[in-house]
Amino acid sequence: MNYDNNNIFAKIIRAEIPCLSFYDINPQKKIHALVIPKGKYVDLDDFNTNASNEEIIGLMKGITTVAKKLGISSIDGKGYRALANISDYGGQEVPHLHFHLFGGEKVGKMVS
Ligand code: AMP
């Protein structure tokens, strides 16, 4: 096998893939994933104020890419909720911007 500079890990190392995703350690729904930017942004307002347009587009598109991979997108699944908790009143616990993706079942009321 030859080394391909465009393989996914190489792109991540070069930061060409601007976001990452992984499952939440404490899932609140059947499917609960997190999507985060690679850059150091504390929350959505910090991100939208200081990130490049490329990073912002990358994260937004990344949400749908992940939803498609999980089979929950509105295109090939039944939908999901994307949610970002922002700062103190928003109930944010981890101070690195992240979108929660909840799906795999009816998610329920928006605010409880
Ligand atoms: P928030 O309240 O929006 O800041 O959400 C933080 C989320 O991070 C919670 O849903 C946690 O369950 C999740 N979390 C914390 N530590 C980890 C971890 N090591 N791996 C995956 N998810 C985590």
Can you describe this structure?
The protein is α+β, with helices and mostly antiparallel strands. The chain has four helices and four strands. Helices cover 31% and strands 19% of the residues. The longest helix is centred in the middle third of the chain and has 18 residues, at 53-70. The protein is globular, with a radius of gyration of 15 Å. Adenosine monophosphate binds at residues 22, 24-26, 34, 85, 91-94. Adenosine monophosphate binds next to loops.
Which sequence of SSEs, written as H and E, runs from N to C?
HEEHHEHE
| Ligand names | adenosine monophosphate
Mean pLDDT: 93
Strand content: 15-25%
What is the gyration radius calculated from CA atoms? 15 Å
Short description:
About 30% of the residues lie in helices and about 20% in strands.
Task: Please describe the structure with a list of short key phrases separated by commas or semicolons.
single chain, 112 residues, alpha+beta, four-stranded antiparallel β-sheet, 4 helices, 4 strands, 19% strand, globular, binds adenosine monophosphate
Q: Topology of this structure?
A:
Layout: H1 8-13, E1 19-23, E2 31-37, H2 44-50, H3 53-70, E3 80-83, H4 87-90, E4 99-103
Antiparallel strand pairs: 1-2, 2-4, 3-4
Bound molecules: adenosine monophosphate.
Adenosine monophosphate binds at residues 22, 24-26, 34, 85, 91-94.
